[in-house]
Amino acid sequence: MTRLVVCAALGVEARALRDPAYTVVRTGMGPRRASAAARLLPAFDALAVAGFGGALDDRVRPGDLVVATEVRTATGVLPCPHADDLADRLARGGATVRRGPVVTVGHTVTGRERRALADLGAVAVDMESAPLAASAGDRPWAVVRAVVDGPGHPLVSPGTLARGLAARRRLRRSAAALAAWAAASAPCRTTETHLPEEAGP
Predict the structure, then answer these.
(1) 124-126 and 46-55 as β-strands: parallel, antiparallel, unpaired?
(2) Average pLDDT for residues 73-89, to the nearest whole number?
(3) Phi-psi region of 111 (alpha: psi -120 to 50; beta: other; left: phi over 0)
(4) CA–CA separation, 62 vs 75, rounded Å?
(5) CATH architecture for the domain at 4-185
(6) Which of 48, 156, 164, 178 is least surrounded by Cβ atoms within 10 Å, i.e. has the fewest?
């Protein structure tokens, strides 16, 4: 069986993503906590970072899922070769899925900074994905974010609760796609049986 670990920053995200097919790890919010959690993850064959995120592009609406084609930071880029398979599986489950670069930052992004990141082609922003994705090494990894805020939908506003509940429902419905993606992307573990050597004559 493929060992999938799904990382979520917040308790509400972790509860929405809980599923018997994989292990959910709550990392805490922000890149510092994510970096610390990355060093303590249980053994895995595939890794997913999932939870809420903020849209940068006004074509990405609250409730949409963003699947990262790459994760960007101030110091580099992590390409995600497994993005399309996960995005296709989520779309077949009924989600509106957007694919594109996700930027990991250490603070809430608003206004001019949001527009500047969008101008560089990024579609969403989060605070945890980069250090967790880096910990996967050569194993399959993916990032999926349910959009809560974005241009025209500020994080602190009367509509945030309703948007958050919609995003939570979407995360809950993503469990089957995450498990199927991991099974297809990562080789299953095998148990080797070592027979005792025959004694000589």
Answers:
(1) antiparallel
(2) 95
(3) left
(4) 29
(5) 3-Layer(aba) Sandwich (3.40)
(6) 156
Neighbours of 189 (CB within 10 A): 10
**125-181, pLDDT tens digit by residue?**
999 999 999 999 999 999 999 998 765 565 545 556 667 788 889 999 999 999 999
Q: Where are the domains of the chain?
A: 4-185
The pair of structure tokens assigned to 109 is 């992004």
Radius of gyration of the chain (CA): 18
How far is 84 from 87, CA to CA, in rounded Å? 5
DSSP string, 117-186: HHHTT--EEESSHHHHHHTTTTS-EEEEEEEEEBTTB-SSSTTHHHHHHHHHHHHHTTHHHHHHHHHHHS
Provide the CB-side half-sphere exposure for 143 (13 A, CA). 33
